[in-house]
Amino acid sequence: MTASFTPERSDAVRELLIERATPRAVRRRRMPALIALVLAGAVAGAGISTAAFAATGAFTSEAPATPSGQPAPDLGEPIAAPPGTVPGAPVISSLGAPRAREVSSVESIPLTDRPDAATHVRVTVTALTAGELNMGTDAAGDNPRWQVGASDLGGPSAVSWYDYPLDAATDALHVTPSDDFTATVTLQYVTHVPTHLGVNARGETFGAEGGPDGRPDLIAVVATSPDGGSVEGFARASDLEAFSPDHPAQPSDPDEAVELQAERDHAYPDGWDIPVYESDGVTRIGTFHVSN
User: Fold this and answer.
1) Cis amide prior to 73 (ω within 30 degrees)
2) Which of 17, 56, 197, 250 could be stapled to 213 by a disulfide with Cβ–Cβ 3.0 to 4.6 Å?
3) CA 72 vs CA 77, 125, 165: distances in Å
């Protein structure tokens, strides 16, 4: 899955939120080159949970759009990020008890019982057989989809989740599985409270991409530490968005894109590493791999 740093895609990526994450390489499309921050994880338990920004890598990064003329969810005024929450990522509170059901055919699951405070519904899917699932709140079927192979069953790739935004027009979750696909679907209503980005002593903003304050100068990532382990830190947006180490800017036209793509593939066939810092933007604590 890939996602760019445009405002539209940032809104979509922001709906895919996690508390714990496992790093993967940044993947790029051939034309145009797009950055993806692809991580995997899950939020466990009820009550207030905090989230790092990320996409699960299972459902596509295109979130269902708010229907025309309908109000967007009221997320409230942004607050300062509490300890344990990446600035710019929301604080997430569970509402009520989750409910689960097994699905194997086309159906619409009502969402009319949601609490007034719910801004999203978290849908967790556990695949029981291989296949494809199209699922979301758009009755017309323009929803995220998920593919599961036989080799994924029983492992972490057989489980995915997505926070669907709720508005006045959202009344059901529409599920369309492929033939012979069966899964357990669990619904949990949640409230997202947005948080502000942090600002370091150098005046640089840091935190999660896609929050109410826009793109930070230093974007939260899960990186590789010098000892080979995982470490949470911040990579510069300019480094993440660079076409290559030799060409920070994106190509200006298709001809230049083809030329620079060839140069990049030759010079960096396996990608490249960029530095990751603490929130001060100075103290280096690891590296983040960007791959072609």
Assistant:
1) no
2) 197
3) 14, 25, 8
Looking at the structure, do residues 104 and 114 belong to the same domain, yes or no? Answer: yes
Q: Looking at residues 11-34, what average pLDDT do you find?
A: 30
pLDDT digits (tens, 9 = 90+) for 233-260: 999 999 999 999 999 999 999 999 999 9
pTM of the model: 0.67
pLDDT tens column, 81-138: 999 899 999 999 999 999 999 999 999 999 999 999 999 999 999 999 999 999 999 9
222 and 185 belong to one structural domain: no
Q: Residue 259 falls within a domain, yes or no?
A: yes
Strands of the sheet containing 131-136, edge to edge, are 107-110, 172-177, 131-136, 145-148
Shared domain check, 47 and 6:
yes
In a domain, 137, yes or no: yes
- CA angle in degrees (0–180, nearest 5) for 188-193-198: 135
Among 142, 175, 193, give the residue marking a domain's end. 193
How many Cβ atoms from other residues are within 10 Å of residue 212's Cβ?
Answer: 14
The Cα 280–Cα 277 span in angstroms is 7
Domain tally for the chain? 2
